[in-house]
Predict the structure.
Amino acid sequence: MALEDYLAEAERCSQCSYCKWVVFDHMESWRFSNGCPSIAYNNFNSYSARGRYATTLALLNGTIQYNKKVLDIVYKCVTCGNCDVSCKVCRYNLEPLEMIHELRFKLVEDGQLLPQHMLHIEHLRKEDNMMLKPRADRARWADGLDIKRISSERADVVFHAGCRFSYDESLWPKAQAAVTILKNAGVNIGIMGTDESCCGNRAYDMGYSNEVKLCASRNMESWRKAGIKTVVTSCSDCYHAFKRLYPPLGSKFEVLHTTEYMDRLIKEGKLKLTKKVPLKVTYHDPCNLGRQGEAYIPWKGKEKKIRSQIIVYDPPRPRYNGAWGIYDPPRDILKSIPGLDLVEMERIREYAWCCGAGGGVKEAYPEFSGWTAGERIEEAMATGAEAIVSACGWCERNFLDSIEANGGNMKVFDIAELVQQAI
Amino acid sequence: MALSKDVYKELEDIVGPDYISNDPAILASYQFSLSVTSIHLGPFFRTNTPCGAAVALPDSVEEVQRIVKICNKHKIKYKASSTFWSSMSYPSHDDVVQLDMRRMNRILQIDTKNMFAVVEPYIIGVNLQAEAMKVGLNTHIIGAGGSCSPLASATSYAGPGPDTMFMGYGSENMLGLEWVMPDGNIMRAGSLGAGLGWFCGEGPGPGIRGIVRGALGARGSMGVFTKCALKLYPWPGPAKLHITGKTPAYQAELPDNFRVYTLAFPSWQAWADCCHKIWNAGIGYLAHRQFNMFGRELKFAMIKILTDPNRTLSDLEQLSKDPKIRKVNEEMKREFQFIMAGMTPRDIAWQEKALDKILADTGGWKVDAMSDPEIAKWVMAYLIRLGHKNLNLIYSGGYEGCFGSFGPPDYGSSHVEEIAEFKKEWEKKGAIGDAGGDCMMGGLGGLGGGAYVMWENFTTWDPHDKDSVEGAFEFFEECDKFAKQRKWAKGMERGNALCRGSDGREFPKEKREQVLSQSPQAHVFRYQQKIRESFNPNNLGDAHYTTLETQK
């Protein structure tokens, strides 16, 4: 696809602004009624999906040229996909999130880059991670951990730690907990160690579509050589890459998030949670596991009209609208932990508020990223929970940073840590 | 001519540099496409409203006042909008200062005892409803949906909707008001103007409803409304809608004291008789002919799609040929949706009994397929919240109602079939969506006994397709002639055609004056001209406040 392919959508956007709000059916209060962090923080219409359709149209028509503001509009978005869900409550022929990605691909193609992104992309090209750390340190998180190294031992399942869990030392216990739980439940699991590559998802979100192809190629080659059947990850960014971005590039591997795997093991009786964890928690749906966690469905087709002017697709086009994201496995795990009290925030599941770490925003616009996380922490506090639990290292890091900056007693857990406590 | 640097600086000093922009990239998102939903004037292919000179986001009445005063000082036109979902919200001239009211987004008060709320411009219907429901109250949501600003419709337009039978029009719900007048002075109207709070729109204190609203609301052309109080109404449901279901098939739990029906009739006469009898009996919370907007031949297939998260529009062709679905469409050819809410168990029992008697008297019935719990709960969520109104544009992105009218049920219903036949012929030509001719929809009833029905026959087109847009325009022109030949009232689809022309700019004054001077109530527009001269001496609005200078 190219940006020109979104001209029709840009002209068919009704400018209704549903993309700015949480899904109306689920709006429970004035305070937590925003859906799109970008418009909520930046205010001008341009910082919404409808505004970015207008930007697309104006660029294609030549009524605006690239300038700093255009870059700001295009890149100051967490690509969380809330706009996509709210739009698609009514529209079946618009793809706002795809359009936003395509805008970024176009800017990157035209050399309209952000230096903050370039820093990470250059590092990715040299050291194969987005964390500005040496490649050689990638497996340090697992030092001393009794887990198979797939370079020397065979395993059916690979645990992909991802850049955040690999290099963010304070998050290491979360990844260690996840892989240990699976191993102890009898899963023949191992790690790639320094042969693990960045998944490419964050580069993709920044607009570097080619980088994800290179990352996919490296990872898939390693998995193939090692005879891997299943890829498991605790990182929702990686999950999205493997589940949605890799299959069109040829991936046939089974992909599971650790929450899916643990939920399966609990339901099969292979993982027993017996110890009480007396804690009141709320669960944050990571965008890339929830509304963007729907499995890839191959499609090649074209638009056609029926009944004169009704737009459909031939063959029918898969619809990614958040209906089939991964929402219940994490909740089912939490509900199975004795003594744990799960309370829900107002914006959850497909209409969850983003943590603010995605879309290259944490790297390029840290204030906006922090504000978005702070909003979520406030929402979590409003439930009376003592802790916010998630299933993604990026969300957890952003919440920790926000709490450190703004104060407060809210604790941040990965689900795996609570499961470990309950075993 | 862009704003001078000095004027821009003056405005920037008011709102701060983060809340004003004249960057072309920002201004591009403050233009409206007139090929999409033309709002009663087009559609016009690839035509936008004029680009503003700058957009400013004020945060308080004081900031609004200072902006308006600067605009008066420099004779610069300005236009404020809350949600920007209508061409009426956008400039008709070049170099207009646009006010985006989104920072004024507070609910200032909900007075449960006196049943009103005080809101700012960027509060939307769903915001207010969610908060009101917590205290057992509800707010009227206009037909355009819960994403619209109740302040905007109450102060500046008509505001009918599905719940109008119980909660009135937006314009009927306006109480105390804070208005930055066109010259920059602040008027506090109704009881607010007498320092007695927000509870009344007409006094004690200055009663200026007629001045600020005129015939149909000034549509952003007579100053800026910064706060108003709105009447609230009883909500005998839960403190929050309990929503279940996968997107987009959201459903609201049906409390025991609620009933959701689709009522159908053997004839249009019976349909109209039922409306009168319902109003006479004083039953019902909401009445709307809603889903016929998808078209007589497609409506139940569309309901099947929208209530099943696995389906898409690609299923429409097959579903619409299904004999069972066609049978339901035929059964509910002349129908409307009706929600009853009992304030007590005895009340809902009585309403149910009254409805059954009315149906027996008129030969009407409750459509079983629509009473399926999965569908009824979806209808409940849809109509109470009105959060899916963008379904108006589901088919291809362009929509407008034709033959729009307000009137007694007998009036519109007597035209439905004739209009449907006329439209069906046009649907065959290919420019507009082919949905079966009759796509008539609208709300039934009004406060104090009803007697009013709003009708519009939904017409859809593809804004990306020049032939479709131009064909739709031609169709609307023909609708106008068709109605004129039959001496029917002018359809709402041309309601703004004298405000804005095919180039997106103000309709030429000479031609406007010519048409208005021949209108049956020309004196209204002459009177509005006098109001404008008094209150808006620099004429910094546009033709959406309809005035007539010509005396004869």
The first strand of chain A starts at residue 148 and ends at 149. Chain A has 18 helices and eleven strands. Chain A has a mean pLDDT of 97. Chain A touches chain B through 65 residues (CB under 8 Å).
